[in-house]
Design goal:
Layout (H helix, E strand, L loop, with lengths): L2 E5 L4 H9 L4 E6 L6 E2 L5 H9 L5 E6 L14 H29 L1 E6 L12 H21 L4 E8 L17 H13 L6 E4 L2
Parallel strand pairs: 1-2, 1-4, 2-3, 4-5, 5-6, 6-7
Length: 200
């Protein structure tokens, strides 16, 4: 049984994906005590520890770590900006950089969970959108570099979901389990799905 690493894998969409990867030994990465590897996903040491914890060859990386920052441009403090960039962009880059060469040579799939904020501009989401647009740009370059290799790269842009990301339930938001089902289904298809946009 191969190993999958899921960042942000102890809550919300990440947890739902981890629960559905029944054909893998799953290593979850987050700051929570329940994670297989506890730590900041934006740090290289955390990525190294996650890779070292794999009991079998790693063939799947799901980057699902993230956090939100909402409010009008001009209201964002430096500390919050750095935290948001680290969680949504740096963490994705760090884990991809740690495994991309291995996947190119030996085979493996990277799933970078973005957001529809990486596709559309919305008021009061300037920093969050900047991080997600950055992650989208990085992912598109990975797709280009993966051509002709054994690596597969998929971007996923879900709309709003009912997860602990929000303080209270949001009307019309999606069930993260249904979104996770769509992602895992795409992984299992015989064709190479490189992009998913999931909205209600």
């Amino acid at each position: 049984m191969p190993t999958a690493i899921v960042t942000g894998g102890t809550s919300g969409l990440g947890a739902a994906i981890a629960q559905r990867l029944t054909g893998y030994d799953v290593i979850t990465v987050s700051r929570r005590e329940s994670a297989t590897v506890r730590g900041d996903a934006s740090r290289e040491d955390t990525a190294r520890r996650a890779i070292a914890a794999a009991p079998t060859p790693i063939t799947l990386l799901v980057n699902c770590a993230g956090s939100g920052l909402f409010g009008p441009a001009g209201s964002n403090k430096e500390e919050d900006v750095r935290r948001t960039i680290d969680a949504n962009l740096t963490a994705t880059i760090v884990f991809c950089e740690a495994l991309f060469d291995h996947f190119k040579q030996n085979g493996g799939t990277i799933v970078n969970v973005l957001s529809t904020a990486a596709l559309f501009s919305r008021a009061n989401e300037s920093v969050y959108s900047a991080a997600k647009w950055g992650a989208r740009g990085y992912t598109e370059v990975l797709k280009a570099e993966a051509k002709g290799t054994k690596a597969r790269v998929m971007s996923v842009a879900p709309g709003g979901m009912q997860t602990p990301f929000w303080d209270a339930p949001r009307e019309g938001f999606m069930d993260p389990g249904a979104v996770a089902d769509a992602i895992v289904d795409a992984l299992d298809r015989p064709v190479n799905v490189t992009e998913l946009v999931i909205q209600r």
